[in-house]
């Protein structure tokens, strides 16, 4: 029950330790602390390392008995803002709460890190402190997408770690995305699709055709089913579990989907507010509408996971409130407990070996 | 009132003549003819050239008194299917209803063409028969997107004519998209945004930075306001009227948006069917729900417009029903009547001259 840094909560209490960046989100540290409180209530086996300005955090934390004994504050005097450039933060980020949050994963104090801060900076700091997994060229950010699948979600990656991806990177995204779906969505043999446009003839985009061939060859060794090219309309479908694309396209698709869902729900709200009968109807259907809201609530699936690093980092939405932060923490805890990072490393290593074997065989045939 | 081909209905009746491909849609010619009937009822000044198998079309058309005197059938024995490759159709497409539909615009018999057929093939046939406007390198497909704008729609292009676009092409899309918004949405000085991801530093994608500079320089001559980079979430927003992107990204965004809107409305339907109170609530709110459905109904905005050719072609959804076909025809008629193609050609020509002037000035300063 100590919050003294000299004893590691992980060893004393066998709790899952989450390293949390209290600063850098749009709603400030109060929203993050409120998210911790929600998480602590829901899950007795969580403990937190909370990074940020101690003079701000101490009073916030002390208001909540639920986390008083399970939350150790790590003072970090500086904050990465949404305007800071990743390259700057990479060079001069020591002393920020973000840097400190990642370092707790690097030195083994915490199993996983969560931050609401600047995505580009978080990826830059994660890369430089945690380093890439052996064999990974480009790390990726994977997100969950509400879908018609029985589990309710699909995985898409990359949604913004890097704006480019070669065929080799896309193959690695497939391997890593399938590992994530296995651990995060409990799918034994995920279906993987490669995002493309529907035209028969795609002049250019040679990397997609090449990636198509590589994924077809790799699917058995990597234990996924490759369903081939999928289109934007398939992202929320039950045709596929993991959608692979480059970070430029993935980011545009993610934000377009979020924007469209928001538009639909705003229009719906306006429709129900448009007259007495509609209001009465909405009142009667309140239970159903609340379930609907929950089903398409982006806060429920809050958390982009950085894949391909020596450590797990969950990026929460910058605008996350307590519900959003707590969803990101739940996801982080789940990945920590499933031993995800070790499994992922093993997958990437074995895919690398399979790739080499295939290259050797291919070379022999030529 | 003659349907005899020797007299041109346009000259006799001063009607707007639409050339319509009756074949190649997923629902067959009956859906297309039903769409003509809806359009003819709503608009007394329309007449049609209908292309396809006469033995199939004649009985369909003769069932409807509304179009009997306003619809001339042009027999075309062959059909372009969804599986046909654009390059094949380009070489061997003569005799298909699609080819014949475009030719009626080429030879001046009709003001505009509408087809539900294979998009790639339709673009290929349109390119080879109508030819590109002088100064246009890559034609584009523009679509309307339900939005928070006062008019209810934004324009996005390219949504799939070509998977690549250089800075010069993107600038041309801005000019053409703005012209379309001026004629199609009645906006005097449309706001144009360039689709990008939100990160501060975009390694690579040099064409976007270059296009950003070119659009900033061109906005006054081309009479649009350039709002800079926009993100996926801005597509349905009131920040922008015209969203410019390459055809790969635009196609993914379009289909992702459609897929997400469909998912939201399916989830909503399930929610209202989930219990007695919900059903009763839905019944009371029926009027509001119907207006909502109409507001987000993709059939209402059915019609991708091909920009950059010597003639206007409207591509209707392959799966369009009578309502969808009639929406595409309404859009086609509006563009024909506004003299859109002449205005567009003038814009492209003047933008080309402005670009040359700028290049000369720029060259002088260097």
TrEMBL record, chains A, B:
Keywords: Acyltransferase, Cytoplasm, Lipid biosynthesis, Lipid metabolism, Phospholipid biosynthesis, Phospholipid metabolism, Transferase. Its EC number is 2.3.1.274. One of its GO terms (cellular component) is cytoplasm. It is found in: Cytoplasm. SUPFAM superfamilies: Isocitrate/Isopropylmalate dehydrogenase-like. Catalyzes the reversible formation of acyl-phosphate (acyl-PO(4)) from acyl-[acyl-carrier-protein] (acyl-ACP). This enzyme utilizes acyl-ACP as fatty acyl donor, but not acyl-CoA. PANTHER family: FATTY ACID/PHOSPHOLIPID SYNTHESIS PROTEIN PLSX, PHOSPHATE ACYLTRANSFERASE. This is Phosphate acyltransferase. It comes from Gemmobacter lutimaris. The lineage of its organism: Bacteria, Pseudomonadati, Pseudomonadota, Alphaproteobacteria, Rhodobacterales.
């Amino acid at each position: 029950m100590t919050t003294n840094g000299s004893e590691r909560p992980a060893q004393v209490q066998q709790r899952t330790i989450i390293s949390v960046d209290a600063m850098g989100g749009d709603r400030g540290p109060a929203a993050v602390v409120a998210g911790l409180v929600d998480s602590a209530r829901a899950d007795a086996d969580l403990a937190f390392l909370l990074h940020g300005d101690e003079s701000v955090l101490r009073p916030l934390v002390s208001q909540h008995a639920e986390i008083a004994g399970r939350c150790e504050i790590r003072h970090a005097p500086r904050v990465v803002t949404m305007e800071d450039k990743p390259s700057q933060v990479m060079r001069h980020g020591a002393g920020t709460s973000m840097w400190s949050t990642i370092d707790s994963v690097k030195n083994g104090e915490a199993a996983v890190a969560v931050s609401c801060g600047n995505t580009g900076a978080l990826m830059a700091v994660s890369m430089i402190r945690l380093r890439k997994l052996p064999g990974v060229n480009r790390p990726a950010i994977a997100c969950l997408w509400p879908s018609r699948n029985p589990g309710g979600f699909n995985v898409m990656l990359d949604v913004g770690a890097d704006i480019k991806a070669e065929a080799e990177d896309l193959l690695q995204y497939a391997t890593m995305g399938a590992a994530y779906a296995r651990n995060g969505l409990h799918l034994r043999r995920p279906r993987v699709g490669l995002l493309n446009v529907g035209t028969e003839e795609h002049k250019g985009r040679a990397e997609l055709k090449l990636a198509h061939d590589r994924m077809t060859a790799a699917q058995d060794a990597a234990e996924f089913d490759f369903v081939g090219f999928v289109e934007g309309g398939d992202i929320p479908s039950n045709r596929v579990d993991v959608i692979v694309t480059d970070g430029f396209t993935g980011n545009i698709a993610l934000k377009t989907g979020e924007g469209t869902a928001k538009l639909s729900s705003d229009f719906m709200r306006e429709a129900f507010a448009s007259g007495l009968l509609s209001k009465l109807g909405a009142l009667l259907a309140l239970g159903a509408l609340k379930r609907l809201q929950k089903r398409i609530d982006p806060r429920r699936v809050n958390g982009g996971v950085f894949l391909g690093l020596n450590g797990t980092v969950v990026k929460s939405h910058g605008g996350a409130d307590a519900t959003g932060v707590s969803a990101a923490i739940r996801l982080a805890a789940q990945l920590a407990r499933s031993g995800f990072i070790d499994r992922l490393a093993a997958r990437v290593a074995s895919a690398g070996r399979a790739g080499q074997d295939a290259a050797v065989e291919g070379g022999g045939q030529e």
